[in-house]
Predict the 3D structure of the following.
Amino acid sequence: MMSIDYSLVSRLERFIFASVSPTYAGVFRIVLALMLAAVFWPRRGLSLEGYSIPGLLYFFEHISFPYWFFTFALLILYGTGLRPRLLGAILVVLLLPLSFQTGLHASCQLLLFTLLFFSLLRSNAGLSLWTGKAESHPVSVGPMWPIRLIQLQLSVMYGVNAVAKTTPEYLSGQVLMGMSKMLPNFVVNLSDGYLHLGPLAIPVTLLAIASVMTEYILAIGFWFPRFRIATAVLGVFFHIVLKFMIRVGMLDWTSIFLYLAFLLPFDRPHISEIPEKKKGHSEPDYIPTTPKA
């Protein structure tokens, strides 16, 4: 008969269903609210996508300001911890029409899915202005699997980009050379096959290969706890370099924000959440007993 590795089953169960720390869930909720406000904030000069959607253009031209005002008021309440599961679901619906801004749709989509997944947790159990003392430290905010969905989203983003770029045309630099000439969001001109940094000329082929390898590392590296810090440092450096080469709206900052889904120890209790033992009443973890005759 086939034996079952119960240690593997136990690790898998903890990976998916471990309790989320209320404190770190509160930290992520606050930063998520700030990122949503920054990305969805109305900006001048942005055109709209999806004109085929009935009423979308009329919405942006006539009622967008009061709609934005109401939505950002709810964002403030969400960030302070008022009914985050209910407000999170409402905000997903309210922010959806605002995600059709050209140049911001990718970062908007990432944040909307992040908000949807995170709204499955009771994140107001920690760092909330609306939680009473009686429920300040509940047994559990919820299981880890909504956080895993956010982590998986980040890996899929990098992984799909890396696979799509793993072609002879891209790795040879031809795609980058052509895109730098045709696309207005490119800051540098790579049409001669080199990236010029003062007296230094870097072949575009090396840039293409390095970018693809980096995205493969970012797609996989975060899943290994030992390499998470190094992977995050590489990702920050990668996106900073990209900002000097191509404008992608808020996608760089959104990607870096999602690193928190891996870097915050959601499955470990914060020091403030560990119950203190009364002095002079320490108890052993295990008390042996003698069976009665």
Observations:
- Confidence is low (pLDDT under 50) at residues 278-293.
- The chain has twelve helices and two strands.
- Residues 56-79 form the longest helix (24 residues).
